[in-house]
Amino acid sequence: MTTTAQDVISVKLERSFDALDANSDGYLDWTDYQKLGDRYIQAYKLDKDDRRARALQTFCQIYWLELLRHAGVDADRLTKDQFVTANRLAVIDTSRLNVTEGGGHAIFDVIDVDGDNEISKDEFARFLKDVWQSDAPDAMESFTRLDTDGDGAISRQEFIRAIREHYFSNDPEAPGSLFFGRP
Ligand SMILES: [Ca+2]
Ligand SMILES: [Ca+2]
Ligand SMILES: [Ca+2]
């Protein structure tokens, strides 16, 4: 069987589902999205009133509502199939929320601790360590992949592009998944 572009994107989304389904009961609910936001907020010790924390939480809330709307379910939880379908529709429909840009900027603003509009190697290492408890040497390889122009820092544009690739590209290893539930 040949793998179509569509299959690869679904496989990436299925992996995100597994990573986000903290209690492994086969459903995602709002608490799983809340945890995704909290993971960043706690890792960076952001005050709950901090603008960046509020932006990230608001993004997670609207993203979740958009997934429910696109899944067309009345319940407040999603199966894996519903999650994959809803995500594929939600990233295309930017009427209420632009998932890739909105989420990308909200996460970037948190990781770029010194606010110079770039993610340095140190800032990226901190992200891996504090958000995902990962200090594996090969984890830094994703820094090199994200720094597509090779200038030693991840620009906002490079960051957003990686997130777009996660949702829209055939590449099974597109590094954007790093930021949505998979280390
Ligand atoms: Ca669950
Ligand atoms: Ca920076
Ligand atoms: Ca760069």
Write the layout of secondary structure elements.
Layout: H1 5-20, E1 28-29, H2 30-43, H3 51-71, E2 77-78, H4 80-92, H5 99-111, E3 118-119, H6 121-132, H7 141-146, E4 154-155, H8 156-168
Antiparallel strand pairs: 1-2, 3-4
The structure holds calcium ion (CA) (3 copies).
Residues 112, 114, 116, 118-120, 123 line the site of one calcium ion (CA).
Care to describe what's here?
Helix 3 crosses helix 4 and helix 3 (51-71) packs antiparallel against helix 5 (99-111). The strands form two sheets. This protein has a two-stranded antiparallel ribbon. The chain is built from eight helices and four strands. The chain is mainly α and 183 residues long. The chain has helices at residues 5-20, 30-43, 51-71, 80-92, 99-111, 121-132, 141-146, 156-168, and strands at residues 28-29, 77-78, 118-119, 154-155. The chain starts with a helix and ends in a 15-residue tail after the last helix. The mean pLDDT is 91. 59% of the residues lie in helices and 4% in strands. The site of one calcium ion (CA) has 7 residues, from strand 4.
